[in-house]
Write a structure and sequence with these properties.
Layout lengths: L1 H4 L2 H10 L2 H9 L1 H8 L9 H12 L15 E5 L2 E7 L6 H17 L4 E8 L2 E5 L3 H19 L18 H4 L1
Parallel strand pairs: 2-3
Antiparallel strand pairs: 1-2, 3-4
Helix pairs in contact: 3-4, 3-6, 3-7, 4-7, 6-7
The protein binds iron/sulfur cluster.
Length: about 170
């Protein structure tokens, strides 16, 4: 991620255009990300959207925001840095959750806050997300994919997959 750390313009672009949810979506489905970054609303009556909102309300007390876009769920201080936790209702789509959490860790790094590790948690299941070079390179690819989607005039073509069953944008696709 050195390219991004050292390039103020790209950093500015990130702050203006993307958030953790868009990183999660581009890691799940490019069309979902394309719709989201255009502020097209998912079906608010969808049970997964409602469940996500309920979860966000329940965990509100633990929320720590440094920037508006920095919306991880929990931060714990340790001797040599911080542990950042993101809660999910399930870990089925753990790679998208991992990218979202890495994005928050990346923003904290920009703010000179040392994160030792990230944790993706669903009930008692926990998955460690290491802030290492390989993971940040993967995150960088997702940021670049999002940047391309911003300039795409039409949504990417998609095929039905298992993920579509729990997607709030189903009505836009099938
Ligand atoms: S319904 Fe499927 S193809 Fe459409 S945005 Fe959602 S995940 Fe993507």
């Amino acid at each position: 991620m050195n390219l991004i750390y050292n390039n103020k313009k790209i950093e500015d672009w990130i702050f203006e255009n993307i958030d953790g949810t868009s990183i999660n979506y581009v890691s799940t489905c490019k069309k979902e990300a394309w719709l989201y970054i255009r502020k097209i609303s998912a079906n608010q009556l969808d049970k997964n959207i409602q469940m996500g909102r309920t979860l966000a309300n329940l965990r509100g007390e633990d929320k720590r925001d440094i920037f508006d876009i920095l919306k991880f769920d929990k931060i714990d201080k340790r001797k040599n840095g911080y542990v950042v936790t993101e809660f999910k209702k399930s870990l089925k789509n753990s790679n998208a959750g991992k990218m979202q959490l890495l994005f928050y860790i990346y923003l904290l790094k920009i703010a000179n806050i040392n994160v030792i590790t990230g944790v993706l948690q669903s009930k008692s299941k926990k998955l460690k997300v290491e802030p290492n070079e390989t993971n940040f390179r993967e995150l960088e690819d997702k940021i670049l994919e999002l940047r391309e989607l911003i300039f795409e005039k039409t949504p990417p073509k998609v095929k039905f997959s298992k993920t579509c069953n729990s997607c709030g944008y189903r009505d836009y696709c099938f």
